[in-house]
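Let's practice the habit of predicting before peeking. Look at the sequence and jot down your guess about where helices and strands might fall. Then scroll down.
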Amino acid sequence: MNANHEKLDRIGRNILASTRNELYLNMRFLDVALSGLDYTMNLNTPTVGTDGFSIQFNPRYLIELYQQDLVLLNRVYLHMLLHCLLRHPINREGREEDRWNLACDIAVESILDSIDNRCLNLLQSNLREETYADLKGEMSVLTAEAIYRWLGKTQDFNRQLALIREFRRDDHRFWPEDEPSDNRNGQDQQQEEQSGDNDRDRREELEEKWQHLSEKTQTNMETFFASWGDEAGDILQSLTIENRERYDYRQFLRRFVTMREEMRVDLDSFDYAYYALGMELYGDIPLIEPLEYRESRKIKDFVIVIDTSDSCSGDVIRKFLEETRAVLSSEELFFEDANLRIIQSDAQIQMDTVIHSPRELEMFCENFTVRGFGGTDFRPAFRYVDELMRRGEVGDLKGMLYFTDGFGAYPERKPEYEVAFVFFEEDYIAPQVPPWAIKVVLGPEELEVSGGRGDSTDRNTPSGR
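Done guessing? Here is the structure:
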């Protein structure tokens, strides 16, 4: 590095360090996160960007911003930091790159615009205000995932270009690349194996690093810096959504299965050596016959309650039923004498349907009609199920799924069976549920089970983050 480069590198580092100190003095809950990025001069970028480990900067760009407005420097620094805290660079894999980049930029800029702090305050353009208004009409929280889906519905190419010009602040070329596809010849695949392994290791290191820093920042905001309130804007809400623990929905349903013997040939327990020996010695008398029973773990008695109050969308209910049907059927979780009850309830029981087989469940989902649209009260459904158990119509009940928006009166006492309150939407922060219940959040793109941070939800299901 020649003397001129050394001077530019030093100036750029000093500008970034000064910006970091300014952000720390104004938002101390970011203290740990602000220490997560080093600085590297990179003249291949016209602006700045981050790979999650360091800020790659062009010093001339930083000098121009420094001379123009310090608020712009603060915003671009925090813009990149929020990308990392929300794991935007890692979560891009499998998504259309340009659309995902724009969605991430809009998400973090909306957070910056929500923060009431003079070190970040700028007047919002009409385009920003209109965009935020459109987005908030479609989603409760402006997450990158939800904005990505919204952009996919927008066919106005010129408007998307305008949004890119309005919200882009950093260079995303340093974000991790998607893993290469298998559609390569043998030589290319061999050459890329080693670099692919290195990329995966680096991606895992990046994920682990920012998950830790993100959770630490969230804890800081929930405890030591809870008094900051509106000054922190939407940062805590976004971190809470991103840091939800995630589990496999199929594994979650398996916690409600029953272990018992089922009449079925168990080929795994059959030894062909003894069978062949008997046939050889005695002609037609095998020494061991196949077992007629085997132990299986399936659903025997199970209850799904659907909140059909006015606040629950019929389309969302159908989506939940279809996804649950797909899991139960594909995983072959039904005993032949299964007793699955699907109860519709708002402030009172509206309908109770008994399902005995995957085919009956498929027909129910195809012909499903919502009954209700009244108020919300969870207690009648619990009283009804308790009565079914008392009459012997429901036997060994392992659990109940209660699909709802969460706003209603909960039972005061824990029932004899496990209960999971299920909420739908990836960007939805569900209400608190009773300490004896499990809180489940199902996202629109993939089914995920989310135990809330710091509460007693999902106590037994192993983490699959």
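How did you do? The chain has two domains: 3-243, 248-260+298-449.
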